Amino acid sequence: QVQLVESGGGSVQVGGSLRLSCVASGFTYSGYWYMTWFRQAPGKGREGVAVIDWNGSTRYRDSVRGRFTITKDNAKHTVYLQMNSLKPEDTATYYCAADRRAMAWELSPAFYNYWGQGTQVTVTS
């Protein structure tokens, strides 16, 4: 059974940094998987933030490119999201997700079957 467990959320001031972690279990982590961070703000839909594939290729939504970095450690079965220069609009619940379908690269939640419980990120001014 695939399990994804996020951690690292919290409250930070504008311009600050946080690093989120997602530990994966229940599948062959080094296989052909897309590992992705999504976020959902109150009253808004869930949006893809960043994805990393099995080769380490990455893709970001425009609003976070240059500020956020997604990486993974296969030995630790962990995906990270380093978030720098945080803005109030980054406030959301952040979710880790995984899938093997090629469409998962499109950063759409519709193409992900496996989800973590989420971790809250709050950016205060």
Descriptive overview:
The model has no long low-confidence stretch (mean pLDDT 95). Helices cover 0% and strands 49% of the residues. The relative contact order is 0.32. The strands form two sheets. Strands 2, 4, 5, 6, 9, 10 and 11 form a seven-stranded mixed β-sheet that branches. A four-stranded antiparallel β-sheet has the order 1-3-8-7, with no helix packed on it. It has strands at residues 3-7, 10-13, 18-25, 34-40, 47-52, 58-60, 68-73, 78-83, 92-99, 114-115, 119-124. The protein is mostly beta strands and 125 residues long.
Mean pLDDT: 95
**Helix count from the secondary structure assignment:** 0
- Sheet-strand content, in percent, reads over 45%
Percentage of residues in helical conformation:
under 10%
Provide the structure class. Answer: mainly beta
State the order of secondary-structure elements, H for helix, E for strand.
EEEEEEEEEEE
Shape: globular
The span between the termini is: 40 Å
Beta strands, count: 11
What is Rg? 13 Å
Topology readout:
Blueprint: E1 3-7, E2 10-13, E3 18-25, E4 34-40, E5 47-52, E6 58-60, E7 68-73, E8 78-83, E9 92-99, E10 114-115, E11 119-124
Parallel strand pairs: 2-11
Antiparallel strand pairs: 1-3, 3-8, 4-5, 4-9, 5-6, 7-8, 9-10, 9-11
Can you summarize this structure?
The protein is an all-beta fold. The chain is 0% helix and 49% strand. It is globular and about 40 Å long.
